[in-house]
What we know:
Layout: H1 3-10, H2 16-30, H3 36-46, H4 53-89, H5 95-122
Helix pairs in contact: 2-3, 4-5
Amino acid sequence: MLYDEFIQGTGCKQNEHNYKVYKDLEIMYMNSDLSKEEVYEYGKKLVDNSKSVKEIEYEKRIKAEIADLKTQLAQFQADAKMYMGFYNEDKTDTYWKSQAKWKKELAQDTKNKIRELKWILQL
């Protein structure tokens, strides 16, 4: 059984503790008639998947950025609605229509950034 197989089979992170668990279970696997799946089940109970301080800080920064982007998104959407209202009142002035379009584009870009950051959090 390879370490990569163990990582994939247990879904654990690659760290020193989990490598030691792997080495112990590998010896057990080699000296018994246990299947890999049975070893993976034992491994799932023994591995440590807790997050490091760096990972926690990284997630905090991303979540704060998402919150900020959501605030900006709400403002862009409100501005676009307001500008379209101005345009609808006086259809001769296309300035407000162009401003509304620009704010809608900013809102869409912001939605995409939020989606990307949420995807990063899932990794």
